[in-house]
Amino acid sequence: MRPRWIMSPQEVAILDANAKALGVNMDELMNTAAEHLANALEGAPSPIWILCGPGNNGGDGFRLANMLDDCHVIATHSKQKTSLAQRARDSWKGSVFTSDSLPEIAPAVIVDCLLGAGSHGKPRGEVIKLMEAIPGGPMVLACDMPSGCGSGISFNAFRTVTFEAPKSNMIDSEGKLLPEVGDLFIAPIGWPEETLDPGPGDLLRYPHPVDGQIKGDRGRVLIVGGGPYHGAPILSGMAAARMGVDLVHIAMPKVAATRAKWPNELIQEKMDDEEIITDVSRIIERCKSGRGVQAMVIGPGMGIDPASLQAVKTLIEATPEIPKVIDADAINALEGWPNGLIGVVTPHQKELENWVEDIEAVPDLLTGSGENRVVVRTGAEDIIVGSAGRGGIGNGGNPRMSMGGTGDLLAGCIGGLLGLGLSPWSASRLGVHLMRTAGKIAGDEIGPGMVADDIPPYLSRALITGPVLLHPQVQEGLSSS
């Protein structure tokens, strides 16, 4: 089994969506979850009360009830909020109690299926009402996570059965389990290994526009590159623009800028340099003026002149607060992972070897960085490496995407998503998925003669393609469970 990392509430929903897109029978996954709970209850005293919330966590509870000879089900709501959970509820033919009509005999054990990994903060409403109504001091078995975990108001479980991976809600700032979790058992429920790879579920990471926004609210991205080549930074800029960022600026030396064909969507950022990048002082000043820039892509078409590489180092050091994509020739400026660099490095295999010799050396560069440092080794398979076991493989798409320019496009995609506020980890996963999807759509419509310039409009289409089409961004809240 591939490594699992500590997952946020949002990421659990994303990977569930990936599993569903892979054709997984979600009812079977729920049954498997319930079986793990039943095993954890072996030898437990009676009476057993199963507390069911309105989401899929509650669905696990109803499936569990069908596996026990003697139990009582208490639900917070009259129906479940997902069709999956409702099917589980409909399968239970016994009585359903409420907080206003509890069973007469107090429980020896309760199974907490109120709020799952998608919840965050203090329990409220009908959930806290039921929690406060529980009589006596029964033992608590938590399904996926104790309700209210980490909020200061929660059940204290003797054991928590969590599914597939630990959840960030149950870990403190020092990486230790919170006391209310009790004995933690991590149970596989049947995700295919490919669930961990970028997929359509990652579209749930995308921050959709909202009413009332004004220009600049969705970020400004600065692409720094060009010199020997002028097309690469333009490609990166077009990809960034197609991510839905508001403003994309391109900074390249004057001679390259005069050769470039400038699309209307891109803004030329003036540089003092003529032939190659050597002086980034004006760029640094630009980053710190007005509303600044929210993300940078450094390297496309830049060349490897030592003066240019020194300029890259200066730019990274001077703007540590701005997340960056370090791409192409700029990777030659890196010595390990620079202090203060938040972002993504996108080498192909040869660039990776020149940088750190082997991909096995990458995890040590990312230790302790959470979602803030990522390496994407690009190629026929894109290998994504993050910290603490995070990873994924980008497959599929179109073999024609091996053409020149697609690396510039991917760097621009990730940069645009960083500009929208995604973490480097989220931006890398979603960017890889969008590139693969765009390549597939473009190949089907254009054929093997497509070129890199053809791809940007298909990146925009890829944002609305998949089983999570137009779903809103997943929000952390107690309504999710």
Describe the structure.
The protein folds into two domains: 9-194, Rossmann fold (3-Layer(aba) Sandwich); 200-462, 3-Layer(aba) Sandwich (UDP-N-acetylmuramoyl-L-alanine:D-glutamate ligase). 31% of the residues lie in helices and 15% in strands. The protein has helices at 9-21, 26-40, 56-65, 83-91, 125-133, 231-241, 254-259, 281-287, 306-318, 349-356, 362-366, 406-419, 424-446, 456-462; strands at residues 48-52, 72-75, 96-97, 109-113, 139-143, 159-163, 183-187, 220-224, 247-251, 266-269, 295-298, 324-327, 343-346, 373-377, 382-385, 391-394. Helix 7 (254-259) links the parallel strand 9 and strand 10. With 481 residues, it is an alpha/beta fold. Helix 3 (56-65) packs parallel to helix 4 and helix 12 crosses helix 13 (424-446). 52% of the residues are buried. The two termini are 26 Å apart. Strands 10-9-8-11-12-13-14-15-16 form a nine-stranded mixed sheet.
Number of domains: 2
User: Mean pLDDT, nearest integer?
Assistant: 94
What structural category characterises the helix and strand content?
Answer: alpha/beta
Q: Order of strands across the biggest sheet?
A: 10-9-8-11-12-13-14-15-16
| Main beta-sheet annotation | 9 strands, mixed
- Low-confidence parts lasting 5 or more residues at pLDDT below 50? 469-481
CATH fold call of the largest domain: UDP-N-acetylmuramoyl-L-alanine:D-glutamate ligase
CATH architecture of the largest domain: 3-Layer(aba) Sandwich
What's the CATH class label of the largest domain? Alpha Beta
Helix content: 25-40%
**What series of H and E elements makes up the topology?**
HHEHEHEEHEEEEHEHEHEHEEHHEEEHHH
The proportion of strand residues reads: 5-15%
Total DSSP E strands? 16
Number of helices: 14
